[in-house]
Amino acid sequence: MRRKRWPWVVAGSAALVAAVVVSTTLTTPRTSIALDPPDDLDAVIVRIEAAVPVALASATVPGASVAIVQNGRPVWSAGFGVAGGSEPVASDTLFPVGSISKPVAAATILELVHAGTLDLDAPVSDHLGDWRLPGGTDDVTLRRLLSHTAGIDVPGYLGTPADEPLPSTVGSLDGGSSASTGDAVRMTSDAGHYAYSGGGYTIAQLVAETATGRPFAELAEELVLRPRGMTASGYACTTTRPADAAPGHDRDGRVAPQYLYAEAAAAGLCSTADDLALFLASLTEDTPQTRLMETAAEGTDGAYGLGLELGRTPDGRAAVAHPGVNRGYTAYLAAVPGEGFGVAILTNGDGGQAVVDAVLDAIDP
């Protein structure tokens, strides 16, 4: 285990599924988020340090990293197990984080909205270039795309094998990627009702790229990642797997094939526990952008904002969360913004949900 106590913390202070069902990870958002902020952080750390190695072994997951935010700041992080071979996982080990790409993507688009480049409630048809959404209507807006209420199909993406050509954003939307359905993205139901859609986030990605003339990865780096100090993170998994990213593993602990994602906003982010702690810290700040992300969108029954699941902790405090699953990886982040508390958990195994559960149980036994 390799761990880090962040420098501003005073020592001693109390300061989901198998790869083949990646596409349905978030069909129904949760309303209960098991993350009551602890009174004794040191006791929580001791429990996490004891629980994670056991969970890794029982679930046949090689490695994990965990970070905790308290009082709106990252305060502790650690790596457990190995990334691949004998290389130990550290809190700055890079992992693909699956659908945790979506909260970062939503934050990126909301920065463009804040700057006046995009309009949350205008039809997106003006920013699709030559591409047209099959079955689309003027009811398709960024607000609805980011809250999964635009009536768009394609729940998720299984990725493109690393040795195959990667399509463009438009190529993916036209069905040229390993979408869960194998079909082109289209509007298949009336807008206004929650239906989880990675395809909707790929449309939002195209809107941002068309409006600015820049790749989505570049926009995210400039508008979200760099300002938060998330220097290790990026949508590099979109085009090529970084050499220092931990390899993924299947449920038997075997190294999984590499997959890449043209669908950056939906599934293409690589990050570290340390960097996601910085993102979580930003979610505890009261800004116009975080208020939009953390306010229930119409049509979600109060369970989803813009890029984030919404719910309540067992003791009734407002909380936000998002899981992330790509083939070979399982991740999770959650926060109680009003308390400045949050946790990020990254694993390099299809069985990583057991590790996520172990960490959450250690926080609130």
TrEMBL record:
Residues 56-357 form the Beta-lactamase-related domain. Transmembrane segments: none annotated. InterPro entries: AmpC-like, Beta-lactam-related, Beta-lactam/transpept-like. It comes from Compostimonas suwonensis. This is CubicO group peptidase (Beta-lactamase class C family). SUPFAM superfamilies: beta-lactamase/transpeptidase-like (SSF56601). It holds the Pfam family Beta-lactamase.
